Amino acid sequence: MNDKKVTISIPIFKCESFIIKTLESVKSQTYPNIEVILVNDKTPDNSADLVTNFIREGQLSNWKLIELSENSGLSVVRNKGIDEATGDYIFFLDSDDTLEASSIADFVEVAEATNAEVVVGEVKGIKLPEYQEVDVFPLRVKDDVLEGNDVILKCLVDGGFPVSSWNKLIRLDFLKSNKIYFTKGLYAQDSLHTFEMALKLNKIAFLRKKTYNYYLHSDSVIHNRKKVHFDNWITIANKINDYYVSETKDNRKIQILRYLVNFKVMTLQMNWKAQKNETLWKRSYKAYAKLKGLSFFDYFSSHYSTKLKKENFYISLPTNIGYKLFRKRFGD
Asked: Is a pLDDT exceeding 80 seen at residue 224?
């Protein structure tokens, strides 16, 4: 089993406070056949120097730091990791998180035993500075293995597994043969990339073990969402909408539309929670209103839950009315 090589891809950008702990967790992996690709996205701090020294002092011949010529964003960084990878599998690790020592070994064991294209692990959330363990990104799916694209797509739409791109062991040939890359220019797009994988997946497995330590701190993206993130969400919603329009199979159209409506609802709530800015919220609301939603006849269909029908109604109203009802429902 050790003959299967795993590429761990790590972005380097403004992470000098966390990167050494991240690198130590990778160096400590019990699985021997690992290559590490670190991509420096023109970080303005000392992160890249710390990485260079870590590689040199550890004499890590299977690690390399790639320098981008200009700051290009996480999507380009991750795509560079895919293109440079020589492993059988690729694993995306954020530069402020860590792995348990046996994580990669456990992932490979499940992947090889099931022949799954993707294996998803469980996440331990750690809130800093108190190091309080919190429940984040749970695995709600009951089965350990899912087979068949329709089943997997529905499971994702139902919220059965997280949309995060990290903490997933992914077969590299699956990504490359299906040309599943991250969209250039989008800052936060895990929900899109995982959705695009789900459109193509035939087998996915789940590792019932905490494999990834996700640190919640003041610099986390989840605490610092701004207009650029809202604009990214509008772009992602448009891309999901395009998949819906181009899809020819009714059962898949139903799942894609469910995903789109849920995405609009979720990001409108996150938009308000992040900024509480009426102008920015209304901008997103208006953009989403131009996209597909449930039709009049869909409200009589059993394919869509009562909750989804209700949420679709609330985001299909004239903007000012929709805003007033949103504030009434969710307040501050």
From this structure: no
